[in-house]
User: Fold this.
Amino acid sequence: MEQQYDRRKLEQEFDSLPEASPIADIDPFKGDIIAMVGALALDFLELGADDVLLDIGTGRGRWAVAASQHCKKVIGIDISKRMLEDARVNVASAGAENVEFYRGSFEDPCEETDISQKNVNKIVAIYSLHHLTDSMKAEAISKLSAMLKRPGRIVVGDIMWFDDPGKYRDEWDEVYFDDSETDHPASISFMREIFEKSGAEEIEILQIHPLVGLICASFS
Ligand SMILES: C[S@@+](CC[C@H](N)C(=O)[O-])C[C@H]1O[C@@H](n2cnc3c(N)ncnc32)[C@H](O)[C@@H]1O
Assistant:
C-alpha cells in the first residue's frame, strides 16, 4: 500500500495523547523499549559542554531534559502544540535553563525559528522519524545533514525493520507499533542508504529488537 503522510492527523493524535501514554512519558528511564532506545541514543550522541542538540519530535521533552545536563543547549521541536506545552512544563519543573522548544517538523524544522542559525552540531530523533513516508525521510535527513555544523552527528532511535515485521506480530505492542496509517517504519537497508547518500562518513547501526534499532551517523 502506498505510504501517506497526513500532518493534521498526526498533530491530532499527539495533541490528544493521554497524560499517561508510554510513547511520550515524561520519565525517561521507566524501563520500556523507548526508554532503552532513548538512553542508548544519549550515549551515542557523546554530548560535550559545547554541543548544541536538536531533538526532533521532542514530545514531552524527556530526552531534551535528560540531555540538557550534558551539553550547552537543547532545542526541541515538534508538530504537536500540546506536546510542546507539556514539554515546557516538564522543563520548568526540572529546572533546566538551557532548553528551548519551538513548533517545527522534519519537513520544516525552521517553522517557528531559524534553526540553521543556532549552530546545531548534534541531532536526535527518538521514535519520531517513522511517522514520515520513506521519500520524506530521505529528504529530511538530506536537509538536516546539510544544516548540521561539522563535526556533527545524527542519532535516530526508532522502529525500523531488521526482519519481516509479520513474523513478530505478537511483539508489536511491546515495540509500540500498531500498523496505523500514521506509522511508516522503513527497512534497515533503506535507513542506511539515506544516511550514506546524505554524506555521513561513519554509520553505526545497533539492533535492539528485530523491529527496533538505532543509527548513529557521523559527519566530519
Ligand atoms: C512517539 S512520540 C516520541 C516523543 C519523544 N521523542 C519521546 O521519546 O518521548 C513521537 C513524537 O513525534 C512527533 N512528530 C510526529 N511527526 C512529526 C514530524 N513530522 N516532525 C516532527 N515531529 C513529529 C509527535 O508529535 C510526537 O511528539
Observations:
- Residues 109 and 115 are 7 Å apart (CA to CA).
- The pocket of S-adenosylmethionine is lined by residues 10, 14, 23-24, 34, 38, 56-60, 62-63, 78-80, 83, 105-107, 126-128, 131-132 (CB under 6 Å).
